[in-house]
Design a protein that fits this description.
Elements (H helix, E strand, L loop, with lengths): L2 H17 L3 H8 L3 H8 L7 H10 L5 H6 L18 H62 L1
């Protein structure tokens, strides 16, 4: 392996150590095979574009120039442990949760609309009954008034 490739591998090793994951989880995080990660970390394969761009695309705060050339600054704060989504199960769970939350929001809005419609309908029915009762009372009063006058 050329010196330049070994230096790139060393920069990948620094990032790998910073994220504090095992090789499998690190590979899942950046979206490459564990075999590729292992080969690069053990200097048995030179870091190719696949792993370099995978790191740049999937780990926050990586300086691409530093990773590719060694020029620039090593930041030593690449991935906050709290924000690491490492397994496919976690990704699927997050997707399902997002869809569930959206459906839940839509259902709550629909229920609210139904409750509002029922309240308005009940209010209209109550007012209609009051009007009917008032009409009956008025007609009874008219009858009673006629009966008193005769």
């Amino acid at each position: 392996m050329k010196i330049k490739d070994k230096e790139r591998a060393n920069r990948i090793i620094e990032i790998y150590k910073d994220v504090n994951l095992n090789q499998k989880k690190f590979a899942e995080l950046i979206g490459v095979s564990q075999q590729l990660v292992s080969a690069v970390l053990n200097y048995s394969k030179k870091p190719n574009e696949t792993i370099l761009f995978a790191i740049i695309d999937n780990i926050t705060n990586v300086d691409p120039i530093w990773l590719l050339t060694g020029k620039g600054k090593y930041k030593n704060n690449y991935v906050p442990q709290d924000n690491v989504s490492t397994s496919i199960d976690t990704l699927i769970s997050n997707m399902v949760k997002k869809h569930f939350d959206q459906i839940n929001l839509e259902l709550n809005q629909r229920l609210s609309n139904i409750e509002e419609l029922i309240s308005k309908t009940n209010a209209k029915n109550i007012l209609r009954r009051i009007d009917q009762d008032n009409s009956k009372l008025v007609s009874e009063l008219k009858k009673d008034t006629k009966n008193l006058g005769s």
